[in-house]
Amino acid sequence: MAIQRPADARPVAYGFKGFNDLIGHEVVAWRPGFVEMRLVVRPELCNANGLLHGGVLMTLLDGASGLACTFNETATARRLSVTLAFTTQFIKAAREGDVLAILGAWRPSTSQSTFAAETEIYDQTGDLVATGAGTFRYLKGERSDGMLTFLDKAAAD
After folding, report:
1. Out of 3.10.129.10, 3.20.20.450, 3.40.605.10, 3.20.20.70, which CATH number does the structure's domain 10-141 have?
2. pLDDT digits (tens, 9 = 90+) for 138-148
3. Distance separating alpha carbons of residues 144 and 128, to the nearest angstrom
4. Which residues are paired to 82 by β-bridges?
5. Could you tell me which of 146, 16, 20, 151 has the C-alpha nearest to residue 72?
6. What is the pTM assigned to this prediction?
7. What would the pLDDT profile of 44-74 be if each residue is shown by its tens digit?
């Protein structure tokens, strides 16, 4: 897959709610069809073997896929969507203290009601940790709490 950050991806702030807030990842950059997120692996996200729990990786993959595809062109609201199917490949273990980059990208579709996306997770050394691909359905309406705030690029550097 080798997802790359597009040149026009902009630094943003986005506040997660519920379960995603508990995971603790943050959105770093966004543009229509792409999102980059970041997670610092904490002990409470690891399994009994001290490795990042697979469920956390799946949450990151699924969430990035949805975020890449559910904001409108002006990024003022987030469309509602649900996951229909999702496939995950675990490549390398992540551990406490690792800093993960999560890159999600939309795959072009002619459908107005469904979309597909791919996501990759890399560790701080650039090694691939996990990949995922899913199919999603748009729902009617928008989330009132789904707001992106674009940050001044100079302030983000």
Report:
1. 3.10.129.10
2. 888 776 666 66
3. 34
4. 137
5. 146
6. 0.88
7. 999 999 999 999 999 999 999 988 888 766 6
